[in-house]
Specification:
Layout lengths: L1 H23 L5 H14 L1 H14 L4 H21 L2 H25 L5 H7 L1 H14 L3 H17 L28 H24 L8 H25 L1 H17 L4 H11 L2 H12 L4 H20 L9 H21 L8
Length: about 350
C-alpha cells in the first residue's frame, strides 16, 4: 500500500495544481483562491488526523480500514473539487494526505522499516505539483484532469480489499528506541514537538524564499524538483541506516555549505537534496513520540507547513535570492533538532 499511496500522492497533488493553475486562478480573485486552498489542504489535516485517531481507538484498532477510507474519500473529493471550488479541492487534498500518511505509517511501523516508507510516501508530491503546474499553465487542463482522475480511481479500486479483510487483535503501535519500547515522557515529548514544529515552519518558508538564478526553463526546474524528491526519499533510508544523529548532522551541515554556493547549479541541486532529507526524519520522530496518535502527528506538522507559507503569501520574502537565508535555515534547523534530541535524552538512544 505504501507504493500505491505514493503514486496517488503524485496524482492528487498534480490534480490540485492542475485545477488551481488551469481553472481557478485564471478566473480572477487569485489571492483568495490561493489562501483558501492552502488553508484547507494543510491546516485542516490536524483536526482530520485527530478524527482518524479517534475512530481507530473506538473501533478496536482497525486503523488500516479507516486510513484507506480517508484516502479514498480524499481522492474523490479532489476530483470533485476540480469542478467545484478551491476549498473542496483543498479538503480532498487534506483527507488524502491524512489517510495515506497514517496508512503508510502503519505499514512502516509493522514492517519495522524505521521511517523508510515515510520518505517514499511524501516525496512524489513535489513532482506532482510541478507537473500539474506545467500542465495547468499550458492551457490543456481538462484532458489531463480526465486522465489523472481515471488513474486515481483505478488505484483506489485495486486495493479495496482492505475494507473487507479481517483485522486481527488491536495492533501494537509502540515504536522502538534503541531496541526498547521506550517512548519519551510528556516533558520530552513537548520538547520534540516544539523543535520539529519550528523546523518544518522554517523549511516551508525557506522553500518559498530561496531562488536560484539558474532555475529557468523546464529542464532546470525538473532537475530541481527531482533533487527535492530524491532528498525526501533518501532521508528516510539514511536515518534508518545510520541513525537520526548522523543523518541530520550530515545532511543539514552540508546543505548549509551548499546554499552558500547555490548560484551554481550543482551546488544548488545538492542544497535542495540535502535540505529536504530531514522531512521524513521529523515526521518519524513525531510518530515515535506519540505512537498512538499518528494522525495528529502528521497533521501537526502539515499545520506548520501552512504557517511557513503565510509570510510568503503576504510578500515577506527577501529581495535577493535568499542564499544566505538557506544557509541560515539549515544551520538553525540543525540547532533546533539537536536541542530536541538532547532534550529527550540524547546520547542514550538513537532511532
Amino acid at each position: 500500500m505504501t507504493a500505491v499511496y505514493g503514486i496517488l500522492h503524485l496524482l492528487v497533488d498534480g490534480m490540485c495544481a492542475l485545477a488551481m493553475f488551469g481553472r481557478f486562478l485564471p478566473r480572477g480573485n487569485r489571492p483568495f483562491s490561493i489562501l483558501i486552498y492552502n488553508f484547507c489542504a494543510f491546516a485542516l489535516q490536524m483536526p482530520l488526523g485527530v478524527a482518524l485517531d479517534m475512530l481507530w481507538r473506538e473501533k478496536g484498532g482497525r486503523r488500516q480500514d479507516f486510513s484507506f477510507l480517508f484516502a479514498a474519500a480524499g481522492v474523490f473529493c479532489t476530483i470533485a473539487g476540480v469542478f467545484a471550488h478551491p476549498a473542496v479541492l483543498g479538503i480532498g487534498n487534506a483527507l488524502f494526505h491524512v489517510g495515506g500518511g497514517v496508512g503508510t505509517i502503519r505499514e512502516d511501523v509493522l514492517g519495522a522499516r524505521r521511517g523508510k516508507g515515510l520518505g517514499v510516501f511524501v516525496a512524489p508530491g513535489a513532482l506532482g505539483l510541478y507537473l500539474g503546474t506545467l500542465a495547468g499553465k499550458g492551457g490543456f487542463w481538462q484532458p489531463w484532469a480526465m486522465v489523472a482522475g481515471g488513474l486515481m480511481v483505478l488505484l483506489c479500486a485495486w486495493p479495496g480489499y482492505c475494507l473487507t479483510r479481517k483485522n486481527g487483535a488491536r495492533e501494537e503501535y509502540a515504536l522502538y528506541w534503541g531496541g526498547k519500547k521506550e517512548p519519551p515522557g510528556e516533558k520530552d515529548m513537548r520538547s520534540v514537538m516544539l523543535c520539529c514544529f519550528l523546523v518544518v515552519i522554517l523549511r516551508s518558508y525557506v522553500g518559498m524564499a530561496v531562488r536560484f538564478p539558474w532555475k529557468s526553463g523546464i529542464p532546470a526546474g525538473l532537475l530541481a524538483v527531482l533533487a527535492i524528491v530524491g532528498g525526501k526519499t533518501a532521508g528516510g533510508f539514511a536515518a534508518a541506516r545510520y541513525g537520526f544523529v548522523r543523518a541530520v548532522a550530515v545532511s543539514l551541515g552540508l546543505s548549509a555549505v551548499c546554499f552558500l554556493f547555490s548560484a551554481a547549479m550543482p551546488a544548488g541541486l545538492w542544497a535542495l537534496f540535502l535540505y529536504n532529507m530531514t522531512m521524513p526524519v521529523t515526521l518519524y520522530w513525531m510518530v515515535c513520540c506519540m505512537p498512538q496518535m499518528p494522525g495528529f502527528a502528521f497533521g501537526f506538522l502539515t499545520f506548520a507547513l501552512f504557517l511557513g507559507f503565510v509570510p510568503g503569501y503576504f510578500g515577506l520574502l527577501p529581495e535577493s535570492g535568499g542564499n544566505l537565508l538557506g544557509c541560515a535555515g539549515s544551520a538553525v534547523s540543525l540547532l533546533l533538532l539537536a536541542a530536541g534530541y538532547l532534550g529527550q535524552g540524547g546520547g542514550k538512544r538513537d532511532f
